[in-house]
Amino acid sequence: MAHVEVLSLTSLLGTLSPKGVYILGFGWLYGMSVWVSFFGGIIALRALPRHQFGALQHKTFPIYFSSSIGLSSAFPLRADVAQAYVLGTVIALQSCNQLVVGPMTSRQVECSYTNVSTMFQRHKLEKEEGKDYNEPGVSSQMKALNAKFGMLHGISSLANLGAVIALTCHGLWIGSYGL
Questions:
Q1: Burial, 26: exposed, middle or buried (Cβ in 10 Å; 0-12, 13-18, 19+)?
Q2: Which of 9, 23, 33, 36 has the fewest CB neighbours in a 10 Å radius?
Q3: Angle ∠(9,11,17) on CA atoms, nearest 5
């Protein structure tokens, strides 16, 4: 028969273990990654005007990428070598999004030769031209910004998908082999 224990602060603190914290952290990271990648963005895109959607993504993605990097960085402490490489992949892909692709897409980063914020340049040019980015007769500058934004969005999406796939593999490994 199972041992029955009275619920107390001491018994609750006794449930804290490295494995338990690891599982909670991984669950948080995986759930966040699936939500941001497959649900949250689609819902926001359908519910918000495009410029507001862009402003929302501009604010939420840095937090998402930072959280992914931080949580994934703690996990290899309990992983075998193969899983450390899987989690290293997540760190590398999300760092690429956070430090390279994100700033080129939506942050106002001044360079000596140009402002590399593609999304906000495109918004500004839409106002100046009085046309949406996808209307016929947009300027050649708008077409160039559209091509650059599409390329950056594609790179970011592939990097994020790669991170979600790596996290899925890690989750399957935890389920099959434990910690």
A1: buried
A2: 9
A3: 110
